[in-house]
Amino acid sequence: MSSPSAQPLTEAGSEIEVNLTVNGTPTSMRLPARVTLSDALRDHLGLTGTHVGCEHGICGMCTVLVDGQAARACLLFAVQLDGAQVTTVEGLGRVDDLHPLQESFGRHHALQCGFCTPGFLMSSYDLLSHEPDVTREDLPAELSGVLCRCTGYRNIIDAVDEVAEAHRDGIPGPGNCAARTLVGRTPAGGSGATGVTAEEPLAPDDTSAPQRIELPSGEPTIAIDLTSELTSSPADVARVLGDVRLLARCLPGAELTEELGDDRYRGRARIALGPVRLSFQGLAQVLEQRADRIVLNAQGKDTGGGSAQAGIIMAATPSGSGTSLHAEASVFLTGRIAGFGRSLAGDVSKRMFEDFARAIDQAAAGAEPEVSARPPSVFVLLAGVLRSRARAPFVRLTRALRRRRSQDR
Ligand code: FES
Ligand code: FES
Predict the structure, then answer these.
(1) What sections of 76-208 are H helices per DSSP?
(2) What's residue 344's pLDDT?
(3) Residue 266's pLDDT is what?
(4) Which of 61, 102, 120, 151 to mutate to test the pocket of ligand 2 (most atoms within 8 A of CB)?
(5) How far is Cα 42 from Cα 183, in angstroms, rounded to an integer?
(6) What is the 3-state secondary structure (H, E, C) of 299-365?
(7) Which of 104, 184, 186, 246 could lock 195 by a disulfide, CB 3.0 to 4.6 Å apart?
(8) Is the CB of 41 under 6 A from ligand 1?
């Protein structure tokens, strides 16, 4: 009888480094050995497109590709896969350029609640990439590894069959796999393990801050595009845009804590959501700084597991005796702050930018920006949003009545 091979043993609960390439991005995580691939993807990398149903290998919701083969992510331990290539549903297509399977599922109404959809998409991609000649008659059996509880299978079969017919010479590969930033997360109440990309250590006290902050590809959670009219002259506003420390003092709840060199800065930002306090720590990098324009990327992690990344462009142009300050921002959110919804988060972000612009105007005028040391409260910001929303119908009504009166005369 052969002797057992000498496998290194790991203490229960101790963490092991795992290197994966996920959707084209090299990723490094330290994880307890018990963490499944599905949990690593969802909880440590923020890739929540991989759904988890039974966690017993039955339902197929968690199907991903591992080294090009369909696999149940709930049945694999992440540490088994060191060095593997993993493709999830997020890698299949882009918001603005969906994969043919995603297009077809939409066209054929092949989803209702959508819970099974990532599993069906990855499973059918695996099928068509390995068996391009599969017949419609064989599809029910071939796709029986994924269970749908609400749509009914006919539409799903129609969707997959249409793509099979259109691509007998080979289905297009996943269209959203390229090196980019993955957002590491610390699971609430978890082991303290973090998932971060090799290029992007997000831990605020990590001395190896990345040389360049990259933003995720794809559609941002919030897109901000607004212009504020400032009373200060362009020259005075340029003085503020040219001073990163002063600029940081104008941002409500923000604090710059360290200059890292190469135009990189470490800092923190706080925001209050009633009793919930979000405290982001992270990094900002100035990519371009001119008298009339500043471009920067920023990323931060909330201690509760959320994260935010933003690309910001601010440009100042003369406007009468003052300055027009234009701000564009693409904001990517994950975790509990993303749960507040695009509309609400968008309104609050815009209100924060308006307060930011007001503080820049004050700083440009030589005054200390009036930004509270306390974290800005979303309820206070929202009150302003709601006031302006409530006022809007009255303003429209008043204008309409005035128009009507002038037409009647
Ligand atoms: S969650 Fe993996 S098969 Fe059900
Ligand atoms: S669409 Fe709801 S489970 Fe399949």
Answers:
(1) 100-107, 117-130, 139-142, 153-166
(2) 62
(3) 86
(4) 151
(5) 11
(6) EEEECCCCEEEEEEEEEEEEECCEEEEEEEEEEEEECCCHHHCHHHHHHHHHHHHHHHHHHHHHHHC
(7) 184
(8) no
What are the two backbone dihedrals, phi and then psi, of residue 14, each rounded to the nearest 5 degrees?
Answer: -75, 155
- How many whole angstroms from 148 Cα to the centroid of ligand 1? 12
Task: Provide the CATH topology of domain 15-200.
Answer: Ubiquitin-like (UB roll) (3.10.20)
Residue with more model confidence, 400 or 212: 212
pTM listed for this prediction: 0.52
Report the alpha-carbon distance of residue 377 to residue 384 in Å, rounded. Answer: 11
The residue extents of the domains of the chain are 15-200, 202-389
CA–centroid distance, residue 346 to ligand 2 (Å):
30
Residue 350 CA from chain centroid, whole number: 18
**Distance (Å) of CA 365 to CA 229, 231, 314, 356:** 14, 9, 18, 14
Question: Residue holding tokens 């309409």?
Answer: 400
Q: How far apart are the C-alpha atoms of 40 and 59, rounded to whole Å?
A: 19
Most confident segment among 2-11, 166-175, 218-227, 327-336:
166-175
Residue 240 amino acid letter: V
Sign of CA dihedral 382, 386, 387, 388: positive
- For the 202-389 domain, the top CATH level (class) is alpha beta
As beta bridge partners, residue 27 has 20, 197
Give residue-wise pLDDT tens across range 73-89: 999 999 999 999 999 99
Please give the helix or strand (H or E) that residue 319 lies within, else none: strand 307-319
275: which residues sit within 8 A by CB, 6+ positions away? none
